[in-house]
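G., the chain you wanted modeled:
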Amino acid sequence: MPEPVVLTGRRTRLEPLAPHHAEGLAQAGTEDRASYAFTPVPHGLEAARAYVERALADQAAGRALPFAVIRAADGRVVGSTRFLELDYWQGPLVWPPAPGVPYGDPRTAVPDAAEIGNTWLAASAQGTGINTETKLLLLRHAFETWRVRRVSFRADARNLRSCAAIERLGARCEGIRRAHSRGLDGAVRDTAFYSVLDEEWPTARSVIELRLAAGPPAAAGPAPLAAAAPDVAGPRSDDAAGRLVRA
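Predicted structure as tokens:
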């Protein structure tokens, strides 16, 4: 599993999700819940504790790297996000491929592809630029530290606002998978899939940074914390080689 790390911006700080975040998640989830029709968001302290427990179990199994979203202005927990669907393409070629299996020491492995998802924010944090900066921090870490080849996103195809938000990040729609899974409301849903490739990242980064510069200014807050782990990955062994909320 990639090393957990703190990612810090002007508006937000992403901390590795931990049990002590449960109370803050519970408080964030009790604000206006009208935007959570397609996103599983814990309601109440016990639900928040269970949410964290499940996320950490996925992390222990190598399936996800979850974060708490902290608002820089006041240090409050305002939501959660994560990397998931981590995939590794290094080492000897195996056919058929076995996704999600790192080659060599898993403690030092970095993925070749990842998905960003399970993102939700408290109503008071939506429309403040926190979501956009959260995506910038995650994408920058994936492309510039892990040096992944692809970052993907997905959304319930009925969720037009989320689809538009993903496209504003510079992600390209790969298509709609029909009758893909059950939605949060129990209905069988179509899922829209999106991706950003490594060669597309410089352009996407410029677009996201321009959006942040044109958006609401970051509120003054406490000084950023240092990263919990170095934001640098060692050389690769193959060098040849919710719903999203409003920004």
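The radius of gyration is 17 Å.

Shout if anything looks off.
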